[in-house]
Specification:
With about 240 residues, the chain is mainly α. The protein folds into two domains: about 80 residues, no CATH class; about 130 residues, no CATH class. The protein is about 65% helix and about 0% strand. The chain contains nine helices and no strands. α1 runs parallel beside α4 and α4 runs antiparallel to α5. It is globular and about 55 Å long.
């Protein structure tokens, strides 16, 4: 099931960023445009059997989709094996987070549809009794969003986009306070560290914009998994 969901995410992230319907239409080769047959659209397996090339034009296929499929499958398997409450809700959060990571990395945008759908589903889960204090969760969401909004205003959108601000409302609400503080700390730490590494390697320069959404999304998953230990490490 995880691989199938990953295959869906591959199409969703590609089409949503381009304002295309992800319900209608068939997947096609990004190089030659040829429709992909059903037997060439089996997650991961088809990529391996075709040797990573399109059946029609024989040009190399990006590792993008199989990587999304594998990461999604591992995430879904982890949720299943952990025997957590509200597993379908957690799988949805995983899918939304992977989608946000991919879309912002490739297009430097975070679609409002994913943010507000995620916030709405998280609110419903909290109202149904998921994971403790309703108020601490919304404190985490609003404080995280407000903090990034201040950075956005101070830097005049150069240091932080409004998409990041809105995403913080969703992710911070899911994590709750004080995990949301750990999440933001980890996001800035990883973002700054990678930025320095890229500059030292000559792959980036000072002042060049690097999308922050992928760092927020990746750090969100780490915090969601190791949240309690991360908080203890930060304060201890």
């Amino acid at each position: 099931m995880g691989l199938a969901l990953g295959s869906f995410l591959g199409a969703l992230t590609y089409r949503l960023a381009r304002k295309e319907s992800f319900v209608k239409g068939r997947s096609g080769c990004p190089r030659c445009g040829a429709n992909i047959k059903w037997y060439d659209n089996v997650p991961v397996l088809s990529f391996l059997l075709l040797g990573g090339r399109c059946r029609s034009c024989h040009k190399k296929i990006s590792l993008r989709d199989p990587l999304i499929e594998i990461v999604t499958a591992l995430g879904v398997l982890g949720i299943y094996l952990s025997n957590l409450e509200f597993p379908l809700f957690l799988i949805f959060i995983l899918l939304a987070t992977i989608s946000i990571f991919v879309i912002d990395l490739e297009n430097e945008i975070i679609p409002d549809e994913l943010i507000f759908l995620g916030l709405g589903v998280t609110t419903m889960a909290l109202l149904l009794g998921w994971n403790g204090s309703f108020y601490l969760h919304f404190l985490g969401g609003f404080s995280s969003s407000l903090f990034l909004l201040l950075i956005n205003l101070i830097t005049k959108s150069k240091g932080m986009g409004l998409g990041d601000v809105k995403y913080a409302l969703f992710a911070g609400t899911f994590l709750g306070f004080p995990k949301s503080v750990s999440w933001l700390f980890l996001s800035f730490l990883t973002g700054a560290s990678l930025g320095v590494i890229l500059i030292l390697l000559g792959r980036a320069r000072l002042g060049k914009h690097i999308p922050f959404g992928p760092f927020l999304a990746a750090s969100f998953l780490v915090t969601a998994i190791f949240g309690e230990n991360l908080v203890k490490w930060l304060i201890g």
